[in-house]
Amino acid sequence: MERYRELLSQTDAEVYEALAGEERRQREGVELIPSENYTYPEVLVALGSILTNKYSEGYPGRRYYGGQEYTDVIENLARDRARELFRCEHANVQPLSGSPMNQAVYLAFMKPGDTILGMDLSHGGHLTHGAPVSHMGKIFNFVRYKTIPEEAGRIDFDDLRRVAMETRPKIVLCGYTSYPRDLEYADFKRVADEVGAITMADISHIGGLVAAGVMRNPFDFGFDIVTTTVHKSLRGPRAGMVMCRKEFKKEIDKSVFPGLQGGPHMNTIAGVAITLGKALQPDFREYGAKMLSNAKALAAGLMQRDGKLITGGTDNHMLVLDTVASYGIDGRVAEETLDRVSVTTNKQIVPDDPNPPLRPSGIRMGTPAATTRGMDEADMDRLAGWIHETLTRREDDAEVARIREEVESFCRGFPVPGIE
To answer: Which of 19, 151, 214, 226 is deepest in the core (most CB within 10 A)?
Structure first.
């Protein structure tokens, strides 16, 4: 691999320098974006492998091109491992990422104009759950349920049921991108059964925590379909999976291919197989538990310093800090200020946010990447202190420079998988 890095430096210095700069950034800073993680070195090997050269349209045993004896082995390994890990009856591992993963489900069972019930975007729902700017939001009729911020972000199931009874959705969708709680899948299932809807859970953020057994598995509550990305808390390549009960297998597979996508990326599917194999090992349960305890420690550290979290804590790997209420600044200013000290977060809307999405009222943080590097609860408290100091003293350039030096010195003590 080092030989090829040297070759790149000689043949395309501009790309090489950008890659080297990104390595330095990842090594010297701390990644607190909850949707980012450091994948396994073995996955990086698979992504850069000769599988990149192979077209494999179709499914194992039913391909459109020849020469598939090894690609079939790899895809079957990924599917088998997904079924075992998530206790499901069928798994499709071909979705290229989270957006086509969810689109494939909608398009498998819905017609234009049909209704889907999902979480309100400002309360934690994801762009792919029917944002008006998305194509799916224009094709289908998305209706919303909300949380109750005053009650630690509890989902208002009375109102959810009311909306479901009034609109009769074909899919009841639960899942989120910025909701720091676990979900009451039994309550979603009860409402869906009452209106005759398919149950779908998007566990993209918490897939690793579900796999580790530290958060609930929707299949244990009779859910029909579960989707997840692989690159977040699972530590895999950038990819998606659709898992389902066996009676939905035909519709899902046809919707992914040929309905939505062409040839799958077999190098990525090899990375998915490697990732799921890792997640089946006993030490992955320890990793999931550590992600969770680190998130709770980071949340506690911020709240002890008067930080206002939208749900007053967390049940998963993420938290959302209301920076307007805590520091009198919007999320964009907070994100850019923390970038100055090599702490990477992302701006985030809060429930019923009066501010626009590019200048929202909060920032989102999470612990997968920090946990992967070996940081623990005490380190999370140190990070909370640096975050608080930075946002409080953001106009003091000397203090910001001092904090940056401390953060980068701290980070150098934690190797980055695949780099060091």
So the answer is: 226
Neighbours of 10 (CB within 10 A): 9
Instruction: Tell me the residue range of the domain where 173 lies.
Output: 46-279
Q: Are residues 266 and 311 in the same domain?
A: no
Please count the other Cβ atoms lying within 10 Å of the Cβ belonging to residue 3.
6
Mean pLDDT on 327-352: 98
- Tell me what percent of the chain is helix, strand and coil, each rounded to the nearest 5: 50, 15, 35
The answer to whether 145 touches 119, Cβ cutoff 8 Å, is yes
Q: Is residue 21 included in any domain, yes or no?
A: no
Summarised one tens digit per residue, pLDDT across range 251-299 is 999 999 999 999 999 999 999 999 999 999 999 999 999 999 999 999 9
User: Where among 255, 279, 303 does a domain terminate?
Assistant: 279
319: three-class secondary structure by DSSP: strand
pLDDT bucket at 176, cuts 50 / 70 / 90: very high
Query: What was the pLDDT predicted at 3?
Result: 79
Q: What is the mean pLDDT of residues 90-110?
A: 97
Q: What DSSP assignment string belongs to 84-136? A: HHHT-SEEE---SSHHHHHHHHHHHH--TT-EEEEE-GGGT--GGGT-TTSHH
What does the pLDDT look like over 212-258, one tens digit per residue? 999 999 999 999 999 999 999 999 999 999 999 999 999 999 999 99
Q: Within 10 A of 279 (CB to CB), how many other CB atoms are there?
A: 27
Other C-beta atoms closer than 10 Å to the C-beta of 382 total 14
Q: Which residues are catalytic?
A: 55, 57, 202, 229, 232, 238
* Alpha carbon 276 to its chain's center: 16
Query: What CA–CA distance (Å, rounded) separates 362 from 179?
Result: 13
Q: Are residues 85 and 151 in the same domain?
A: yes
pTM: 0.96
